[in-house]
């Protein structure tokens, strides 16, 4: 619930956000990909996070795109 309030506050301030959900396991993946998922606030299948849309976040998403789904 608190995450929804934060997302609403960010949207009202004009900042763009992305919703990221982990769809595949991080098991048997390189340590770098596991660390990238942790950096995105994920780690278990089904976890969802709303993040600010920045070039850094976009780069992290690109590195683990095969493990996650992204929504606007």
Any overview of this molecule?
- By secondary structure, the chain is of the alpha+beta class.
- It has one domain (2-71): Ribosomal Protein L30, Chain: A.
- It contains three helices and three strands.
- It has helices at 2-12, 31-39, 55-63, and strands spanning 17-22, 48-52, 68-71.
- It has a three-stranded antiparallel sheet with strand order 2-1-3, with helices on one face.
- The longest helix has 11 residues, at 2-12.
- It is globular and about 40 Å long.
- The model has no long low-confidence stretch (mean pLDDT 90).
- Stated plainly, the CATH topology is called Ribosomal Protein L30, Chain: A
The count of helical stretches stands at 3
Shape: globular
What is the distance, rounded to the nearest whole angstrom, between the alpha carbons of the first and last residues?
Answer: 18 Å
Using the coordinates above, name the CATH class. Alpha Beta
Key attributes of the depicted protein:
72 residues, alpha+beta, Ribosomal Protein L30, Chain: A, 3-stranded antiparallel beta sheet, 3 helices, globular
Draw up the topology in text:
Elements: H1 2-12, E1 17-22, H2 31-39, E2 48-52, H3 55-63, E3 68-71
Antiparallel strand pairs: 1-2, 1-3
What can be said about this structure in brief?
Helix content is 40%, strand content 21%. The chain is of the alpha+beta class and 72 residues long.
